[in-house]
Amino acid sequence: xAKDSDCTIVFDGKRLSGRxxxxxxxxxxxxxxxxxxxxxxxxxxPLETCDSCWVEVDGELKRGCTLKAREGLTxxxxxxxAVSARHEGMDRLLSKHELYxxxxxxxxxxxxxxxxxxEMQIPIQRYEFQRKPYEKDTSSPFYTYDPDQCILCGxxxxxxxxxxxxxxxxxxxxxxxxxxxxxxGKNIDDSSCVHCGHCVTVCPCNALMENTMQPDAGxxxxxxxxxxxxxxxxxxxxxxxxGATPVTGLSMMDMHWRQPEIKRTKTVCTYCGVGCSFxxxxxxxxxxxxxxxxxxxxxxxxxxxxxxxxWDFVNSEQRLTMxxxxxxxxxxxxxxxxxxxxxxxxxxxxxxxxGPDSLGFIGSSKASNEEAYLTQKIARLIVGTNNVDNxxxxxxxxxxxxxxxxxxYGGDAGSIEDIEKAEVVVIVGSNTAExxxxxxxxxxxxxxxxxxxxxxxxxxxxxxxxxxxxxLRPNASTDLIWASALSRYMFEHGYADQAFLDEWVNKVDEYxxxxxxxxxxFAEQKTGLSRQELIExxxxxxxxxxxxxxxxxxxxxxxxxxxxxxxxxxxxxxxGNYGKPGTGGYPMRGHNxxxxxxxxxxxxxxxxxxxxVSEDSARERWAKGWGxxxxxxxxxxxEGNFLMVQxxxxxRLKAMYIIGEETAFSDADSxxxxxxxxxxxxxxxxxxxxxxxxxxxxxxxxxxxxxEKEGSFVNTERRIQRFYEVLPPLGDSRPDWRILTDLxxxxxxxxxxxxxSQIMEECARISPMFAGVTYERLAGWKSLQWPVKADGSDSxxxxxxxxxxxxxxxxxxxxxxQEPEEAPDDxxxxxxxxxxMLEHFQATNQTGRGPRIWEEAPGWFVEVSPELAAExxxxxxxxxxxxxxxxxxxxxxxxxDRISGHTLFxxxxxxxxxxxxxxxxxxxxxxxxxxxxxxxxxxEVLPREKGAPPLKxxxxxxxxxxxxxxxxxxxxxxxxxYVAPPGHVSNPRKM
Length: 991
Fold this sequence. Notes:
The chain has 32 helices and 37 strands. By secondary structure, it is α/β, with parallel strands linked by helices. The protein has four domains: 304 residues, Ubiquitin-like (UB roll) (Roll); 235 residues, Rossmann fold; 192 residues, Dimethylsulfoxide Reductase, domain 2; 129 residues, Barwin-like endoglucanases, CATH 2.40.40.20. Strands 14-13-27-26-25-15-16 form a seven-stranded mixed β-sheet, sandwiched between helices. Helix 9 packs across helix 28, helix 16 packs antiparallel against helix 19 and helix 25 packs across helix 27.
């Protein structure tokens, strides 16, 4: 038996050993025994609504989902008592569900209701199905709810209330005709539903179904309703005359007919840094659905609107499918040989004429680890420059700098699981519910179900701020002050972890002395927070046994973002919140592989695994690994992407190679960016769409999205995961790793890679951080969190036995407060905050390619506080002009109390050139991250006819959630007409 066996039960006369305290349903499954059940799901727990899993214990009926395995337990499932109860439960389910499996889109092998019914060999439907007095809800562009198929199991409610914790869905079992309700009775699209898809994922039948499953999921599903309805009626008649067995047999055959046509492939999400993985179901090139699984290491069954539904871009007619070469100011299609020969020749000519540092490479935070590795290998080994970077320069490099200064690794201290375990979670400058929704769900669930305390510090009152136990709204750019004041408070009030500091931390006295200016009085004066608020936050953090602190672009995109990130990490060090479960610093990574792009060497100063290019030993290691003399690799720190653009503007950089990055949209002061790109001698852009950046290119190479290739990503928790090819490349597009391999061969370096696993193998052989990473160890749902030892053991929680510094200790890093580089003044009196929305991603090059996602938030707008609206005479939809020291834009106003005072908020996604027409080139001097969040503007009301409200009236932000403890099955049991199985009921539709 397995090592964790610690109890033996007797089930139907057989002795079975396994882990104690498991639900009987799961315990039996480990032995290949399927106890019938419908409402139970391992990620949801026992709901006790379906009454189909009854067993007998000591003469009493027990539900197999609530019964836990224990030593000596004796269970029978085959007694007449138990069998009758299970059949009665299934009969009640079927009375609420119109069976037409052979023409049902969901008869694809995982319909729990169908499979359970077939396995139980129900001879006939005891209770006659009657249609319910409700119409099918088709209001959502993403999924449909059919009350006539709903069995009231409550899985969707539990998922919404206690997994996603959006708290939109409920069931009122006291109704004459119970059904699933959105916000108590709204249409789906008029509710607070965020279209995360949790409910659809867990639905055990076809009551909730993805619209993409309709009507092409099976051979008989696409028939017109005028034909389908009569067929269903005929089948229902047959069921009541000849019995259900022949009909069930037909549906089983249909289910098996479908299987060869439906391909199920594991992939990893292409959007944010949470790293959700799931199966993608396809039929030919049609993406039927995204199906999360319990085994997915970062997300389990969770998704968000983008991961679940935002895949229309894959088959977009706007996809690039052939290389493009600019001639006479216009693009023409070209073959791969011509395009790659041209690129290779021009890059080599530029290097030979102007020197290696006249070229710059920007790797993609959306491409794979292997593709990031090849990008920097071409730059360093073939061209000879360290001018290589990725989009982390625009967002997370300040956080990485803060972690390097204090604890030593440039990544999350632990896992998402640690964030869930924390007694207190502090969220700073992170709109987690919209930018990292699945992590936000874990926090919301821990708060709701397990009493976790949440502190949110942010100028904007987003959802997590509304849910917080303590919400602090400081003045912009003052976070270093309150964080340092709290560190001082910890020393002065006995909350500093002295034992931890004595054993594991350097510079304690020096750091404590540096805190002298950071009194509560100074913090109160500068931050706008009250003394009481500061003390309350300090007490919550100081008294907690474990604290996890999350931060994102609200901290990093300032002129001193590195210092503020350092201050946050200092606070964790002072309180001993590193190296134990539930603790640590967690800079939330914004792109699916922005962590991996940095990890695998797309940084101006680091080889893969964070070895410095300026250190002789590192250069020697990589030269030896690549089989070249050490002198062939430059020891000069290169330029990051922000400085590359400036170098191009100054004619020092002559050529650039940009892969999958919308630099022309994302870099600060886009007017200067566009001018610099125009002046380049040669620009290559490798992407899946003709992006704004690609419009400046001399050659455009069509890469592929992640679903059309293999590779690996690293998520925000340092988790390396494989993804697999779901679909073949569209047209003549090619996987980016193959393009880079072919290009290198044309530049005289025939590396001969035929699969990304070979690239990973090479990196792991050279880099100690990835020594044990292999594709075999990443197969399927397996993953590894770096650093990974040669034997394959990984590091879910860092710093458990010290810190990766020379003496094994962390460092407290003294800081001084510095004013922001740009602040409001008399000419530009308003502060313009900016950030992401749930519905979109970055420049909308993906989310903007399909009408379903785009229509959720199609227009650009600026959020204006009620008090500022009153001051300027602004109404909802009023056109305003925002002018910074760089440029102006015109947008409609949205009035909301999410912001206050003289601060504005502008989404970063819509509009061309977008928010960066306004932002400037002032930046963090330590890492050259632009200070996007430090943009002063003036506002002018335009004499134009007022536009429509910027957000649709039914946008989820206007919904009114209906929080419940979960599925309130007790209400059903309390009904006067409820009879426990195996007794019969007069109206099972209400049960």
